[in-house]
């Protein structure tokens, strides 16, 4: 390669590979960070599991429940959960809180298949479970792979029954069958969108008939009997359940050089985990730091646990009240308008096999670090909150100071498609916010891919943001 002239060096922007920028020590740290992230990913496949795992990590780092603080408390690190689907953490800073806080918001829900209220049925001596997909999926990717069920069933008396089937070696897995190629001539003529229909996402769940030959649906009854013996539930109890079918198995190293991670749910647990680890590392920061895990991002941030819920503002209000007892609504609004936030969500790295959907001058590359996305949205930036250039400059300066390798990125070519994040739900409170997260390959698929160096760069970026 031709060497850069001094003028080129001075004037041209150069994307860099994170790996090249890390010294031996940092590379080791990056690999060990990736290892613990992989464990988090494997154990936290649903919103509530991510909250449980996140809470464990927070407690180990010395965070105490917000609700348990006594008068005259000394604790600086607090956390709270909301409906078992949100985790929020705060580290109180030395500077007055009304000067503003640093918020990193990420989401812990991922595309998946939810069981319907009456999922179980029998046909041709096989038992199946009906599903309704959650979030944006390419349906054909979810057939003929091993699936696990993760769920909570709530009985009429309020008792909760947790179940996870399909993750341990000794447990069975589930799958959605597909047509053999020999008989798929008609199916193969359909578009990828129609090849597998939503109502075809039926999970195969059993095949041994009940010993009583006189009952109508022997396979279904046998499955219900099994569920009743093991979990004390009936068919009606499934009405009040949340059971998610997710890809079975662990997150794994990928590639001969083991440089990548393949696993389900990296959108957006890669950012959630990076933010969590960053906030856990803070000791006596100048500025109050806040980490928020939201749910329902994949279906529009609606619902009581989504970014549009008031739990978010209530939590900030509680944190404000720790420093300013009896704070007013106006003070809360001032706090929000003087705060800075990162909407920590993934972006799509350029896939060399599908380059056409990206505008290569402005698309993030795998291995080139955390991605700053000034605006998201569709078409003419529709649905985006767009960050100010002043905020981008602030981050750019901060990342340079803290030696974070970063890049910019947009989600695909203009008019190719697009998507939004939770950023706008903070922006509407007049809080300055920007999207900043890890680039992925195969986003929303059962096996998403991230580069270990990008994950480390994401963590470094969030740590830099908290430290200011
Ligand atoms: Mn996301
Ligand atoms: Mn997503």
Q: How would you name the oligomeric state of the polypeptide chains in this document?
A: single chain
Judged by helices, strands and strand pairing, the structural class is alpha+beta
Sequence of strands across the biggest β-sheet: 1-2-3-14-4-15-21-17-19
Average pLDDT confidence is 96
Percent of residues in helices comes to 25-40%
In the CATH hierarchy, what is the superfamily of the largest domain? Zn peptidases
Alpha-carbon distance between the two ends: 37 Å
Q: Which architecture of the largest domain does the CATH hierarchy give at level 2?
A: 3-Layer(aba) Sandwich
Tell me the number of structural domains.
Answer: 2
The main pleated sheet reads as: 9 strands, mixed
CATH class category name of the largest domain? Alpha Beta
Number of helices: 13
Which regions have little confidence, pLDDT < 50, spanning 5+ residues? none
Shape: globular
Strand percent estimate:
15-25%
Write the CATH fold name of the largest domain.
Answer: Aminopeptidase
The beta-strand count equals 23
Could you say which small molecules are bound to this protein? manganese (II) ion
Radius of gyration: 24 Å
Characterise the protein shown here.
- This protein is α+β, with helices and mostly antiparallel strands.
- The protein folds into two domains: 6-110 and 264-467, Zn peptidases (Aminopeptidase), CATH 3.40.630.10; 112-247, Aminopeptidase i, Domain 2 (Roll), CATH 2.30.250.10.
- Helix content is 29%, strand content 24%.
- It has 13 helices and 23 strands.
- The strands form four sheets. A nine-stranded mixed beta sheet has the order 1-2-3-14-4-15-21-17-19, with helices on both faces. It has a seven-stranded antiparallel beta sheet with strand order 8-7-11-5-6-10-9, with helices on one face.
- Strand 7 and strand 8 form a beta hairpin.
- Helix 3 packs across helix 13, helix 4 (47-60) runs parallel beside helix 8 (266-280) and helix 8 (266-280) crosses helix 13.
- The longest helix has 20 residues, at 24-43.
- The chain is globular.
- 43% of the residues are buried.
- Bound molecules: manganese (II) ion (2 copies).
- One manganese (II) ion (MN) is lined by residues 107, 267-268, 297, 345-346.
């Amino acid at each position: 390669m031709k060497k850069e002239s001094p003028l080129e060096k001075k004037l041209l922007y150069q994307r860099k590979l994170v790996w090249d920028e890390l010294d031996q020590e940092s590379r080791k740290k990056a690999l060990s960070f990736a290892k613990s992230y992989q464990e988090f990913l494997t154990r936290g496949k649903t919103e509530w599991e991510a909250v449980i795992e996140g809470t464990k990590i927070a407690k180990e780092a010395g965070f105490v429940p917000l609700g348990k603080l006594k008068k005259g408390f000394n604790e600086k690190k607090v956390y709270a959960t909301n409906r078992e689907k949100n985790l929020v953490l705060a580290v109180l800073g030395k500077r007055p809180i009304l000067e503003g806080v640093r918020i990193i918001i990420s989401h812990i829900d991922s595309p998946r298949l939810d069981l319907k209220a009456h999922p179980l049925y029998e046909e041709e001596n096989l038992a199946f479970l009906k599903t309704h997909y959650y979030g944006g999926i390419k349906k054909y990717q979810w057939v003929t792979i091993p699936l696990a069920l993760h769920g909570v069933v709530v009985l009429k008396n309020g008792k909760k029954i947790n179940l996870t089937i399909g993750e341990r070696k000794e447990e069975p897995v589930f799958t959605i069958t597909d047509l053999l190629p020999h008989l798929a001539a008609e199916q193969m003529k359909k578009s990828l969108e129609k090849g597998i229909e939503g109502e075809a996402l039926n999970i195969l769940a059993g095949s041994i008939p009940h010993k009583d030959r006189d009952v109508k649906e022997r396979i279904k009854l046998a499955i219900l009997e099994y569920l009743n013996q093991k979990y004390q539930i009936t068919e009606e109890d499934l009405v009040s359940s949340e059971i998610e079918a997710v890809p079975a198995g662990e997150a794994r190293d990928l590639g001969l050089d083991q440089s990548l991670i393949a696993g389900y749910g990296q959108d957006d647990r890669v950012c959630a985990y990076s933010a969590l680890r960053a906030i856990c590392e803070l000791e006596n920061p100048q500025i109050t730091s806040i980490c928020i895990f939201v749910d329902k991002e994949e279906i529009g941030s609606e619902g009581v646990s989504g970014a549009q819920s008031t739990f978010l503002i209530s939590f900030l209000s509680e944190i404000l009240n720790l420093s300013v007892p009896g704070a007013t609504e106006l003070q809360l609004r001032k706090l929000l308008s003087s705060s800075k936030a990162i909407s920590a969500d993934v972006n799509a790295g350029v896939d060399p096999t599908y380059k056409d959907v990206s505008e290569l001058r402005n698309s993030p590359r795998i291995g080139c670090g955390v991605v700053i996305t000034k605006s998201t949205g569709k078409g003419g930036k529709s649905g985006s909150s767009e960050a100010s250039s002043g905020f981008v400059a602030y981050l750019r300066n901060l990342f340079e100071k803290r030696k974070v390798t970063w890049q910019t990125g947009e989600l695909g070519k203009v008019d190719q498609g697009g998507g939004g994040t939770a950023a706008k739900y903070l922006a509407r409170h007049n809080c300055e916010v920007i999207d900043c997260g890890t680039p992925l390959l195969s986003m929303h698929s059962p096996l998403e891919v991230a580069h270990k160096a990008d994950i480390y760069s994401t963590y470094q970026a969030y740590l830099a943001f908290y430290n200011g």
